[in-house]
Amino acid sequence: MSARHGFDWDCILASKKRVRACVIGATGYTGIELVGLLSSHQNVELVFATSETYAGQSLSDVAAGAPEIPLIASETASYRDVDIAFLCLPHAAAAPTAVHALESGCRVIDLSADFRLRDPYQYACWYGVEHPAPNRLAEAVYGLTEDVRRRLPETNLVANPGCYATSVLLALRPLLQTDIRIAGPVVVDAKSGVSGAGRAPKVGSLFAEVAENFSPYNIGRKHRHLPEMEQQMASWRSPAPRLIFSPHLLPVKRGILSTLYVPLEQAPPMDELHSRFRESYEGEPFVRVLPLGKLPSLAHVVGSNRCVIGLEQADSTLIVVSALDNLLKGAAGQAVQNMNAMYGWPETTGLPA
Amino acid sequence: MSARHGFDWDCILASKKRVRACVIGATGYTGIELVGLLSSHQNVELVFATSETYAGQSLSDVAAGAPEIPLIASETASYRDVDIAFLCLPHAAAAPTAVHALESGCRVIDLSADFRLRDPYQYACWYGVEHPAPNRLAEAVYGLTEDVRRRLPETNLVANPGCYATSVLLALRPLLQTDIRIAGPVVVDAKSGVSGAGRAPKVGSLFAEVAENFSPYNIGRKHRHLPEMEQQMASWRSPAPRLIFSPHLLPVKRGILSTLYVPLEQAPPMDELHSRFRESYEGEPFVRVLPLGKLPSLAHVVGSNRCVIGLEQADSTLIVVSALDNLLKGAAGQAVQNMNAMYGWPETTGLPA
Amino acid sequence: MSARHGFDWDCILASKKRVRACVIGATGYTGIELVGLLSSHQNVELVFATSETYAGQSLSDVAAGAPEIPLIASETASYRDVDIAFLCLPHAAAAPTAVHALESGCRVIDLSADFRLRDPYQYACWYGVEHPAPNRLAEAVYGLTEDVRRRLPETNLVANPGCYATSVLLALRPLLQTDIRIAGPVVVDAKSGVSGAGRAPKVGSLFAEVAENFSPYNIGRKHRHLPEMEQQMASWRSPAPRLIFSPHLLPVKRGILSTLYVPLEQAPPMDELHSRFRESYEGEPFVRVLPLGKLPSLAHVVGSNRCVIGLEQADSTLIVVSALDNLLKGAAGQAVQNMNAMYGWPETTGLPA
Amino acid sequence: MSARHGFDWDCILASKKRVRACVIGATGYTGIELVGLLSSHQNVELVFATSETYAGQSLSDVAAGAPEIPLIASETASYRDVDIAFLCLPHAAAAPTAVHALESGCRVIDLSADFRLRDPYQYACWYGVEHPAPNRLAEAVYGLTEDVRRRLPETNLVANPGCYATSVLLALRPLLQTDIRIAGPVVVDAKSGVSGAGRAPKVGSLFAEVAENFSPYNIGRKHRHLPEMEQQMASWRSPAPRLIFSPHLLPVKRGILSTLYVPLEQAPPMDELHSRFRESYEGEPFVRVLPLGKLPSLAHVVGSNRCVIGLEQADSTLIVVSALDNLLKGAAGQAVQNMNAMYGWPETTGLPA
After folding, report:
1. D211: which chain A residues are within 8 Å (Cβ-Cβ)?
2. Residue A153 has pLDDT above 90, yes or no
3. Are the beta carbons of C209 and D207 separated by less than 8 Å?
4. Which residue of B has its CA nearest to D209?
5. Are A47 and A71 within one domain?
6. For chain C, what is the domain count?
């Protein structure tokens, strides 16, 4: 972690102008992670964290090992006391809260899906409810940090990307931003740990159901992360290839590994493809392209904010394997990375390498 | 399983005298296990299974890999159509159902705690509710099969022992039924898989909470299985030693392993103690005492109806390790074993060795 | 298991014509599973089991919960004392043993790869060693039971299919045996439990490496099960589509789930495709095609000899999900099913449904 | 982490006089953890790390997610280039290396058992080999940091305590350092994650053996951590109570939870006992005593250098539950804490709270 070493003026100066932050919905897995990151972030003062269910308790009582942060009810949250609000709320609940916070002069990073799709009609189709704040969609920035960092300093509303979406988009970006021709739909076979299903208790997330099990769900073209992926892909190339996206539930706590099958026309040699990926992410602190012959696993990424990518070829199909920690680079970590970019701090501040 | 295939006289003869059974509350872990055992039991016809939540569906839709048994609402259950009812209901709900079934001429094996304690006052203390049918307590038999099998043929109401209780009582019985002097309280450090916490969704049973974790709970003298253990111990020796009973939650789906520390006065040599355990369980189909030098693990018992016991000594303390599958010998398996004994069939019928 | 208890004519009659079997290499995961199945199979007498490492011990000492079967050194194995030998040996070691057993008048089911590929040159390419018995290849039958059962009664040498291969081939067979046109390579994204890597200790199979992890390996066209899959596919349709086959290591003990992406030309409606799968496996005791809208998981198959298949569609791509227990239908279970067919017994004899 | 926040002169000054460290035996679980801690420690320059098996590779190739540190063979290690050497070697191999390093003017923290027992005869009894450097035993300090920190600045040879021993000793210290009378042997029922068994491949540590399993081993008075615990206890009270120590293998990667049963004479009220524990560890950065009514779990400690302690009572027996991460406070973390104390840095430097 860069800020820990050497003579660190950055650190010293920053301590004088700490940004005041809050976490709305702190007792889900993303919220807990975010509180952990923010409470040890050198430039941030975590002013409050909210919970409907556990207001009045300490987060450490609700989640073993979490920081001792008091939880307040969201009604008592005053957005005038903070500079930035992180929203870890269910979709449709996040948007009204975001509007309220924005109107109180607060910047917002929304970790729900509410501001990811630009088209409110598409939102209604996928989420089964009318968009609560369609007139705010235009100002939202889809926060795939590597793609959008230059816009972040002027942004007040960031739609933090979905966990699956981040893993897939970082894998496709080097291909779609070049002239490599893609011959058909891209198959994405994705696998996620159980924390991705949230902390609300349901039978399908019980230990005795998940351990020693592995299950596909919403495969094909049914998962809600599909439209945000295709929307972002279209910003890179039009028309972009269609996705076939098949998520599976892994018996692990955290981590996503996506295996992408990209049919290429006139595939360039592998070392050339590999070079393009390397160049595309040169200097990126949190995206690592492995040498040819090596593939990522969850062990490469769990506990870090990194996305690690490996390449393989089969006939004219390029296989891209992309791994990240769904709670870090896939959610809370990328949110902090976005905040760092919004305030002009080094993006790595407060994030595990 | 052999009896299902080919020209099977055994099966044919049995079908003439098949006992008609039902499972009340079939969609918890114990209920699912019981339906599995009963639906392949050669002497049993499983007439119906009930579920409040999932009535109208098939059990196989509710639990992947379970038999395709239709689930009916409990209101539509007719106890006149069955010979025996297995109750997998929460405590306090089981007793009234048991009374209703008994009055319909049905035998009952109750897997809840409702008929385990003979003293309704003690029941009220531990379960926080008045006993729903105190006048039925006298006729209930505490179904630790190895101890009580001779009474089972004439019994119509069996209180199936708790999972922890079975593991502890089988470990202590050879000691308490002899003249070996015990010098103080017996420490029982017990560890159970998560299915013991039931299938009702709660945060503490989620995969992301339990995996890579291990937690003590209700340690000391606070767990509800304590009074049924001490009651049964008192039937073997009076006064019996006090128990200190500390359960812990293991990150496994099923299995209980209890480590008991028994302080002895004038400890006999280990081989003599070992012989007493061996003799005590000689001929038992489902209790196995390992040779000295070997200890049981969950792998010895998961998937079988066995309780496996090993012995070790430290100074004058005898250590007894006792392992069983909480859903089999600790619940559904022992229930079937009890039914077998009630009808005079070989106790092993329909049970995995 | 019912046939073991009581007055069992079935058992008694069977014992007169019991087939004498042995397991060569009984202490790997497949061998342990096979000993378990054979020692409770009503038509089989398990005469001996071998182990190089553990000769002289009981299998129950080597694997907790396994049957108490004495292990002998393979040098002392007499193939004249048995009717059928199951070989659970590494490739290249199995073939010479098979020849020896065949020459002693014994039938052989080989669970290694040695007799799966018809072309010894291809064997040498993939396994890095010259085939030890190329002149025996012609008589070997590739034992995908559902495909080849009519040839099994006259067969003395069965090459039991690989675990991945079984899961993939059962998923593709209904498509390849009809006139449905396939538009390009078939992507197979496969995931296997760790027992598939064998019981020989290596760092990559340690609990602390595998738990909370998930890793791709040998993806693309590099895994040794690829040629046996394409060989079998070519027997159904020529030319068959190419495979892209990407295995991944799952943090579970057992089970394989393969997700296949089949690009179709002029895709028929899903219900028609579904009907073809249903018809193709009608009456099969161990292949189950789920209703449309349902998908298999490992929980559907672990502990059973079943392969469970589900279908989904995305644009013109058919997605087939196929799950089985790698140690049962993927190895020991299919071996017993093959033996049952070789002797004309019901295929389900001695196998968990 | 304290050093990250505020105006940190300590950090600034330290960067000028970095201590040069090496890790001998870097590819076991303790070594990997230690390299991770040292390579991000602000006051340390990790000069080299050794491995017999993997010399020439990078640690990141050997362990996914580990830092990219080149591994050298131990023969090429020059102890003159470093100020402090951390030894992660098997017992009996560590002592000669320690002597060599000490003679080169290097301080040594030995994570093996070689310098833990003061009596070379006892070492020979428990480790089955003569002590390789008995004349160095007198200068070694048993590095239970909380107990011995004042001696560390002048120490050149630290024997880092065993993982089990740390969890047990921190649980007993507040009792043994006061006048509370203990009535008999203390039962310690301990449970450890698999990383405690090391990274050398063996069948018993394979995922398919450990997952869904739980096993006692070396219970009673047979485990090698017993003598170092009783030796340290005797330094606090003489005679100290005997221990009965029963370790069990948990299906988790890391973490130890020990449940101690301490029989008390004339037990003081629980709140008084609790106060003594609180006072005993007041101000300790890495020992936390939970409020009465709360118990630690592995989730409280995995990933942190903390030991978390909870208390419960049953009759006159005090139950102490003590949890820590076996690779951090139980090994590499405590080693770094010891180094921090040796150099007079804040003990928390570079350690996860």
Report:
1. 212
2. yes
3. yes
4. B299
5. yes
6. 2
Is residue D34 located within the same domain as residue D143? yes
Q: Would you say D110 and D158 are in contact if contact means Cβ atoms under 8 Å apart?
A: yes
Nearest to B295 among D212, D219, D297 (CB): D219
A337 shares a domain with A247? no
Cα angle, residue A250 at apex, residues A246 and A251 outer, rounded to 5°:
165
Q: Are residues B172 and B131 in the same domain?
A: no
Cβ count within 10 A of residue A266:
8
Contacts of C214 in chain A (CB under 8 A): 191, 250, 252, 255, 257, 297-298
CA distance D49 to chain C (A): 20
Assess whether pLDDT exceeds 60 at residue B15.
no
Chain segment B180-223, per-residue pLDDT in tens: 999 999 999 999 999 999 999 999 999 999 999 999 999 999 99
CB pairs under 8 A between C and D: 63
Which of B184, B220, B298 shows the shortest C-beta gap to D312? B220
Among C195, C202, C209, beta carbon nearest to D208: C195
Same domain, A153 and A174: no
D65: closest CA of chain A, how far (Å): 4
In this structure, are A183 and A279 located in the same domain?
Answer: yes
Q: Is residue D348 part of a domain?
A: no
Residues C114 and C206 in one domain: no
- Contact criterion met (CB < 8 Å) for D210 and C212: no
Q: Which residues contact D75 (CB under 8 A, 6 or more apart)?
A: none
- How much is the average pLDDT of A252-281? 96
The ipTM (two decimal places) reads 0.94
> Could you tell me what percent of chain A has a pLDDT over 90?
93
pLDDT < 50 positions in chain C: 1-9, 11-12, 14-15
- Classify residue D172: in a domain, yes or no: yes
Same domain? For D111 and D169 the reply is no
B-chain residues near A253 (CB < 8 A): 207-208, 211-212
Query: Chains with 3 or more CB pairs closer than 8 angstroms to B?
Result: A, C, D
Is D109:D158 a contact under the CB 8 Å cutoff? yes
Residue C332 domain flag = no
Residues of chain D with pLDDT under 50: 1-12, 14-15
Question: Per the CB < 8 Å rule, is B205 touching A206?
Answer: yes
In chain B, residues with a C-beta closer than 8 Å to the C-beta of C297 are 64
Show the tokens assigned to C117: 């590929």
pLDDT score, position A188: 98
Test mutation, A188, A206, A214, chain C, max C CBs within 10 A: A214
Identify which of A8, A17, A7, A4 has the alpha carbon closest to the alpha carbon of residue A344.
Answer: A17
Q: How far is A49 from chain D (nearest CA, A)?
A: 20
CATH at residue A58: 3.40.50.720
- What's the confidence (pLDDT) of residue B190? 98
A351 domain residue, yes or no: no
CA D327 centroid distance within chain: 7
pLDDT digits (tens, 9 = 90+) for B75-110: 999 999 999 999 999 999 999 999 999 999 999 999
Q: pLDDT averaged over chain B?
A: 94
CATH of residue D267: 3.30.360.10
Q: Which strands form C44-50's sheet, in the order they lie side by side?
A: C71-72, C44-50, C19-24, C84-87, C107-110, C157-159, C141-142
Put simply, the answer to whether B348 touches C5 (Cβ < 8 Å) is yes
Give me the mean pLDDT over the A255-263 stretch.
98
Which DSSP state fits D329? I
Element (H, E) at A85: strand A84-87
Residue A144: domain span: 2-161+330-342
Instruction: Supply the angle between the helices D163-176 and D225-236 in degrees, to the nearest 10.
Output: 20
Q: Could you tell me if A207 and B194 are in contact, meaning their C-beta atoms sit under 8 angstroms apart?
A: yes
Q: Which of D191, D302, D321 sits opposite B212 (nearest CB)?
A: D302
What are the start-end ranges of the H helices in chain A?
9-14, 29-39, 59-62, 94-103, 120-127, 145-148, 163-176, 207-210, 225-236, 270-280, 333-342
pLDDT at position A117: 98
The per-residue pLDDT for range D234-287, each reduced to its tens digit, is 999 999 999 999 999 999 999 999 999 999 998 789 999 999 999 999 999 999
Q: Which of A206, A212, A249, A256 to mutate to test the interface with B (most CBs of B within 10 A)?
A: A206
Q: Which pLDDT score, from 0 to 100, does residue A7 have?
A: 45
